[in-house]
Amino acid sequence: MNDRIVTLPPEEMPRRWYNILPDLPKPLPPPLDPKTKEPVKPEQLAPLFPKELIMQEVSQERFINIPDEVIEVYMRYRPTPLYRAIYLEKMLKTPAKIFYKYEGVSPTGSHKPNTAIAQAYYNMKEGVERLTTETGAGQWGSALAYATYLFGLKSTIYMVKISYHQKPFRKVLMKLYGAEVIPSPSDKTPIGREILEKDPENPGSLGIAISEAIFDAATSDDAKYSLGSVLNHVLLHQTIIGEEAIKQMEILDVTPDYVVGAVGGGSNFAGLAYPFYRLKKDKGLDIKFLAVEPEAAPTLTKGVYTYDFGDTARLTPLLKMYTLGHTFIPPPIHAGGLRYHGDAPTLCLLKDEGEIDAVAYDQVSVFQGAHLFFQAEGILPAPESAHAVKAAIDLAIEAKEKNEERVILFNLSGHGLFDMKAYEEYIEGRLEPYSYPQELIMQSIEELKKLGVEA
Ligand SMILES: *Cc1c(COP(=O)(O)O)cnc(C)c1O
Known about the structure:
- It is a single chain.
- By secondary structure, the chain is α/β, with parallel strands linked by helices.
- The chain folds into 2 domains: 5-12 and 64-109 and 233-450, Rossmann fold, CATH 3.40.50; 111-231, Rossmann fold.
- The protein has 18 helices and 15 strands.
- It has a 7-stranded mixed β-sheet, with helices on both faces.
- β10 (258-262), α12 and β11 form a beta-alpha-beta unit.
- It binds pyridoxal-5'-phosphate.
- Residues 110, 112, 139-140, 229, 262-269, 337-338, 382, 384-385, 413-414 line the site of pyridoxal-5'-phosphate.
- Pyridoxal-5'-phosphate (PLP) binds next to α5 and α12.
């Protein structure tokens, strides 16, 4: 132990996940069947997910025990370190104390294995032989490829075609773990074939890839589908991050005044923040929560809180969330993991209730923040994580202006060592800021109104 790195001994690793559902300020609006507009029954999800995950999705238990087999795999890289950013504090000359929980030490370099491992385990227990999923830049796909490899399952990963060709490294990682990686749109599914017939050069999108992965799972007896963010059970698995961080902050005898995270679908933010939300309510502490998103996909700051589809092809149930509309296609920012039109329903409810704040940044200022952080701390943030870095820096600068000794904790959700193309554009000054794509957002929100579902 030194001043900079707080490690937690393996035997101290938390043995349960925290479920926020019973602690929400009001009940979570249920997912709706798009045809009947009635709440989706848990059984309706059975073709896509194993029973145990469906139970976790709707559970009202505050804590859920982590199975021993999952603990064993977590132990390969957990507990992850908590850092005090002493060099960044010095560089900024701030009276603030800055801490970050570093998830980039996982085998695939982000927080995503925390849920991939749990999902692969429960599927394996229920006799599923193969998992299907989609991936953009490949963070989620490589996490699932790793987890399915460990539990002896096959995996089929529909990777957005343009990323398949332009971001080859995570594709290689997935294949090394034995995954089948298919550029999407593909000729394996009707929707893929239909799109290819019209336009053989279609670059693909996450929406199309989700549809292909869902179709594949729904039409195969041996396969189920796996999602890397947004759903309650995914956020649940990520709370291992915050549960560890609580123990690590206890060792130092500090509590955060601010908990900060980047938001794509909400899983790494929730993973760190929700356990501190419980602490705040139980102990009457004053902790503020800040969700950080890109200006190119400003869901929480510019979206509407209403029912919408989770995917572009309208295959999913309707979820009540802040949304930019399922037809919204965000500009091609480098933080691929933050290019999503909606957000996790629990996170959206908390935002609507004023329990968390949100802020949006353009990608140039985000990379500037990441650059500063890299020079001070020596870790290169993933472009997604860099949003949290930028917000933490701004909070620390504000602390200096107000001469305030605040404690800031943020989630460094992954490293950026596979994102060198993005950093190259940044140093060559070729990075586009992509501020609010106002017109695109207005168009897709108009489309959304046609759905006619009461918010
Ligand atoms: C996928 C990803 C995100 C965004 O997803 P969330 O579900 O919002 O956490 C953030 N950071 C990294 C490193 C990612 O891979």
